[in-house]
Specification:
Length: 285
């Protein structure tokens, strides 16, 4: 698949069914200046937003365009927030910053929750002109409308009291997600974390023990494909040997003529992470 075809597929996944959600906040001039049209930001925490868009009691509104926020309205207990949530480490592209009669909208497009967010770093959306114009019109009609009590309450505004993409010091989170922050213990994970999944497992000692003929200095782990063996349960096919960087893996293929099999029990003392944030070079595949 060519790069253009990959982008077309991504757009067909990301744009249909877009809905507009709001997250109101009072930003300082210093915080507001961190956001620029065209940039991508990562929010390390969960991102709450409401589908109930009304008048504002704050200076700024993050308007989030998304077709994959989690709908948690049925989990509310009388709060009536219209609660929708973006997962941790979600990425957003800033489409527009628009001021209208003392209120400011920062328009964000919710990017895919995997490594493909990177593809949007240097892409100008042809559709963004229509999207931006429509969002500006909505904002102008809503900003000074009657506020909705539930989503202008102190409790709700406290939940929205930090800007998506900024840390506690008011600085932008790095867009790349450190591998160290993604790691979790294998023994604490559900089989669903491995079944038909690619995972990176820190297991330098296992490489030396099981496959010494292909081990090299600096190897930190393996990229494994998980499946269910009818006799022994969760098992793995090693595909690549990896050397871990801060947010990337330097990978090399395990020779085709060599076949290894790893059982879940072999990894009890290891840590792992999903490969969803780590792009695999198509040439390697």
């Amino acid at each position: 698949m060519t790069e253009i075809q990959q982008l077309e597929q991504l757009m067909n996944e990301m744009l249909p069914g877009l809905q507009l959600f709001a997250r109101d906040i009072n930003l300082t001039p210093e915080e507001a200046s961190k956001f620029q049209v065209g940039q991508i930001v990562r929010n390390a925490a969960f991102t709450d937003a409401t589908s109930r868009v009304g008048g504002m009691v704050t200076t700024h509104r993050f308007s989030i365009l998304s077709n994959h926020l989690f709908d948690l309205t049925k989990a509310e207990h009388g709060t009536n927030w219209g609660l929708h949530v973006a997962n941790r480490d979600s990425h957003f592209k800033v489409l527009d910053i628009y001021e209208h009669e003392g209120k400011t909208q920062i328009l964000l497009l919710h990017l895919p929750d995997d490594y493909r967010w990177k593809w949007m770093e240097h892409v100008n959306l042809d559709l963004s002109v229509d999207i931006v114009a429509d969002s500006r019109e909505r904002f102008a009609s809503k900003a000074h409308a009657e506020p909705i009590p539930e989503v202008t309450s102190p409790e709700w505004l406290d939940r929205c009291g930090f800007a998506p993409g900024l840390d506690i010091k008011g600085e932008l989170f790095p867009n790349e997600i450190p591998i160290a922050s993604q790691m979790q213990k294998v023994k604490d994970a559900s089989f669903r974390s491995f079944y038909h999944q690619l995972v990176y497992v820190r297991c330098a000692a296992l490489i030396e023990d099981v496959m010494p003929e292909v081990a090299k200095a600096g190897d930190t782990g393996l990229v494994l494909y998980g499946y269910i063996d009818e006799e022994v349960g969760v098992s793995f096919q090693p595909l690549w040997i990896a050397k871990e960087g801060e947010s990337t893996l330097d990978m090399r293929l395990i020779p085709e003529e060599t076949m290894y099999l790893i059982r879940l029990a072999n990894l009890d003392d290891c840590e792992f992470c999903s490969m969803k944030w780590i792009e695999v070079d198509p040439y390697i595949v």
